[in-house]
Amino acid sequence: MDIFSLFTLCGGIAFFLYGMSTMSSRLEKLAGGKLEQLLKKMTSNPLKSLLLGAGITIAIQSSTAVTVMLVGLVNSGIMELGQTIGIIMGSNVGTTLTAWILSLSGIESENIWLQLLKPEVFSPVVALAGIVLRTMDKDGKTHSVGTIMVGFSILMYGTTMMKDAVAPLADNPDFTSILTAFTNPFLGIVAGAVLTAVVQSSAASVGILQALSLTGSISFGVALPIIMGQNIGTCLTALLTSIGVNRNARRVSIIHVSFNLIGTLIFLIVFYGSNLFFHFEFMNTLIRPTGVAMLHSVFNIATTVLLLPFTKRLEQLAYFIIKEEPEEKKEQPELAFIDFRLLATPSVAVAECGAKTVEMAHLAEDTILKALDQLNNYDEKVAAQVRENENKLDMYEDQLGTLLVQISSKSISDSDSRSVSKQLHTIGDFERIGDHALNLEGTAKEMHDKNITFSGQARNELMTLMHALRKILSVTTRAYEENDLALAAKVEPLEQVIDALIAEIKSNHIARLQKGDCTIELGFVLSDLLTNCERVSDHCSNIAVAQIETAQNAYQAHAYLNGIKNDGNPEFQSAFDTYRKRFSLDEDGAPR
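Above: the chain's sequence. Below: its structure in token form.
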């Protein structure tokens, strides 16, 4: 094997890793929010978690991505540690599928149908079909499917390059003598772990082993410990990912490492202990790529079957290794937010940002309602809650805005792209609603401190306005949470009614002021109150319009609003008339 063969081997590994990365990212994009929906169905049943972990790993072709996702979800407080154990086991099983696909490179037959299964035969055809699909659709599902096909072809081409690069080793006696050292299981485990840690992909390291097996120099006795080591080496990613996370998230990495170490230890004791007595003859038999895939599957499936009943013990082991902090230093789970590691799986990050935006909507509504209650019954404790909620809303906007901008630069599905756009258009409005709640709380405090009270007519008018404001907040929040476009369309008519109601209250106040029934000081307080209520109503309208426009993939808010107001839209007019009748005033300011 000369320097050129080494270059070819490195190139093959590079093609393999690039193809795997391309496939993984596009499969994950194609899955969209389905990954997050599956995780939401997570239960404490280890078997369901196992099947879910295997399914997700097969779907996105990356156990590393699953591990990183789990660390991020636990660090964000979205998942509990115990829920991840079955998924980790399942991801180890799911990743064995790749080895079986790669084993196709070892097919040797004169049968034309079997030859069609060889990567060097079908990969060019798959690549051509993928290019055609990409050309037909520039950015949809067809484009993603085409990219997956091209990525798969690149991966298989990389496998062929690795096979060709190591072919000269078949006649190299030095290579054969080096391999005999790996019959020592401890050396084999170390070699497999180091190889996987270097290439940062268990699939790639297994692919290299399968390519080497085609030289006719690898026996079962050499391959088995290397495969066990490869499962340990793949844990390096989890360990690196756990740097800088909370204790519970670090325990995810500990469980991943413990699972593979314990499985390896059991195999060493049971299998090699039995070999001392029974002398398994197949250990000296030369192995082919299908044999490597079989050993890889047997090891992972057997380890999973053995340890699945002991998930609670694995969790206890993680707590033993990373102990709880003293009570006074415990991390505050309520401060946990979306972990940036979830950017490795953008569709999950989008879904979790969506969930946090809904939380933000409810928090904004609750903060306004608390502030409105302060106008009638001021309470310093409630005032402190309003201020705390407003700070939380600021934090939500800052964190979500940063995450969403980073997500938008990644390759995501059209539906995820619309979701990101909707969230970016609305988080600012939810935050501003919190600001106006703080302003209303300040107005309530001023009224309380100065013992200011409005006239009976003014109180009745404000009561009607508060009812309308509560209604528009409720409709906006529910429409956003349920993604109900029909309900969102009712926000703008109500906003117009609130604007008219505020104008009427201002007109009535001027009339009272001219009659001497009201004071200038009360007028300033009323003006502040009405201005903030009007701004809250405006932000509700912005949120509903953004929701409708992102669903329609059209971003022309002014054109949309002018259209529904001026073109005699029957739905708009019907809702407007209903709300105007419901929130109108009589001569005394009381609701009609």
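Confidence is low (pLDDT under 50) at residues 327-335.
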